[in-house]
Amino acid sequence: MKTATRRTLTRLAFVAGVRVRDREGHLDVTRDGRTQFRIRGASREVVAALEGMTGSLAAPEPVPSPPEEQLEAVLNRVIRLLEHHIVLGDTVALRLEPLVPGLGHSPADVGADTPVRLNRFAFLRVHEGDLVLESPLSPRRARLQADPVRELAAALGAGTTAREQALALDLPVTVVQELLGHLAGASLVDTADEDGSFAADRDDVLRQWDFHDLLFHSRSRMGRHDYPFGGVFPYTGTIEPRPAVRPLPAGPVVALPRPRLEDIAAKDPSLTAVLEGRRSVRTHARTPLDLDRLGEFLYRCARVRAVTAARPEEGMPYPASSRPYPTGGASYDLELYLSVHRVAGLEPGMYFYDAGGHRLVLVNADEDDRNAMIGIARVSAGGIDAPDVLITVTSRFQRLSWKYRSLAYAATLKNVGVLYQTMYLVATGMGLAPCALGGGDSDLAARTLGLDYLQESSVGEFLLGSRPAPEELPPAGHLSWTPVNDADWHPRCERELQPAAAPARPGTPA
Ligand SMILES: Cc1cc2nc3c(=O)[nH]c(=O)nc-3n(C[C@H](O)[C@H](O)[C@H](O)COP(=O)(O)O)c2cc1C
Q1: Fold category of 1-88 in CATH
Q2: Between the CA atoms of 118, 119, 121 and 123, what dihedral angle is there, to the nearest 10 degrees?
């Protein structure tokens, strides 16, 4: 590793919070008061050099200078606590903080006339009072702490060269080259090849990543950032957790029929028949869904079956509930809203499903609003007729973000997947027509359902209806594909699910 490069503007420094203390016989390197390293046998010069690397300003010249190899040996041990400072005048203009501990940083060579531009995945934002440049492709966070560096970052949006920026910023070209070299070395800036083209534009893998998808992927998992992660309960004592069961919106209430476990158990197909015979059905029968079956479906998929107040002594400092499908942290952030087009025994309208009381609350009776929601779902499903029911799944986001940092929204989407499969299986077992959808209009949903977008908005959509007779259904698409691994299980199990068919257990010849 190259240490303090005294010919340039670049200095190695300790990251914020590091202190170096000369104890009897050893050196204590602490971060935020916790010992990170204990170093024995360091010379007085090395101790002085390390002390000079703490604090916000890089020491212009560590004095007295230790032999390079001695200092390097120590710095290699503490590499995960080091960052690069680029000093302009008496200011640290650019700080490159490590997001991935232990990864070295090598500035790139940037020619004075080489075209440079901001990487497509880089973004500017405010963090701890500084303008910072970050990217899911970069193991560094660049703190832009002086005007020339902030102006340089802005100019990089359009593409430029070190020479052009040296003129614009009134800086020596070598200084701009050094700044750009650090940003390019940290993958925050692209440099053009000899022919003027950029390698990133030719990279078929990168081209297929949307900016927000790669950022979301990198930030909702560990490994590429240093932000708080997981169940850290950041708001305990300052913000009250949201209730386990959503309070009822205002509106007329419709009681829902409740199924009996004995009746369900007597008529249910086997798990294998449901799992293997399941498929998406996008068209609905001439006879509509009815209130009994809608009530049974909602009860079996999504009702609340137990509640508890917070139990801090058991590691659950927030109220929780239990429902048939699993959910991260038993937080049950998801809610169901039904845009009812055609259900016997129920007026068309937009309803909230009260999972605690197993009843519907009419939240919007406007036909245009309902049709707008259903219209988008019809397009998503490939241009179908209006479904019996469109189920809009919303998330009460703060249920998860009260507990989790970094992964709260990712957990919501996972919860949606779990709920989708639960709805698929229950609907299939009941002989109904299920189909998940991959997209919807969260703004429209928030407006028509009367929700605050930031507190609760839609994260999923699901079509439900009465299932057409088998002869009215097109065969499952995959039946014309190359069969592998017992592909015949599907048609055999689907036949078993048909009400009129003689029950054939999977495993017996069809
Ligand atoms: C998360 C998810 C999103 C989906 N989005 C749509 C969609 O937008 N439109 C649609 O017609 N089907 C959608 N589907 C259904 C899939 O197309 C279907 O599950 C897949 O083709 C496999 O067919 P099968 O369900 O009949 O076995 C979605 C399914 C899932 C799980």
Answers
A1: Outer Surface Protein A; domain 3 (3.90.930)
A2: -20
- Percent of the chain whose predicted confidence (pLDDT) is above 70: 94
User: Going by CA atoms, what residue is nearest to atom 10 of ligand 1?
Assistant: 381
- Structural domain boundaries of the chain? 1-88, 102-227, 283-468
Scan for tokens 């919501």, then name that residue: 412
**102-227: what fold?**
Outer Surface Protein A; domain 3 (3.90.930)
> Could you give the CA distance from residue 359 to residue 33 in angstroms, rounded to a whole number?
54
- Separation of CA 376 and ligand 1 centre (Å): 15
Cis-peptide into 98, omega within 30 deg: no
Q: Is residue 397 in contact with ligand 1, taking CB distance under 6 Å?
A: no
Quick one: pLDDT at residue 45? 86
The residue among 309 and 315 whose pLDDT is bigger is 309
Q: What is the CA radius of gyration of the chain?
A: 30
Q: Each residue of 49-96: pLDDT tens digit?
A: 888 898 655 444 545 677 788 888 888 888 889 999 999 998 999 999
Q: Which of 275, 278, 280 to mutate to test the pocket of ligand 1 (most atoms within 8 A of CB)?
A: 280
Which stretches does DSSP call E strand in 65-181? 82-88, 91-98, 116-118, 123-127, 130-134, 140-144
How far separated are the first and last CA of the chain, in Å rounded?
Answer: 69
Name the residue among 137, 133, 132 with its Cα closest to residue 121: 137
Q: What is the pLDDT of residues 334-372, one digit of tens each?
A: 999 999 999 999 999 999 999 999 999 999 999 999 999
Class of CATH domain 283-468: alpha beta
Is 171 within 8 Å of 148 (Cβ atoms)? Answer: yes
435 lines ligand 1 (CB under 6 A): yes
The bridge status of strand 343-344 relative to strand 289-290 is parallel
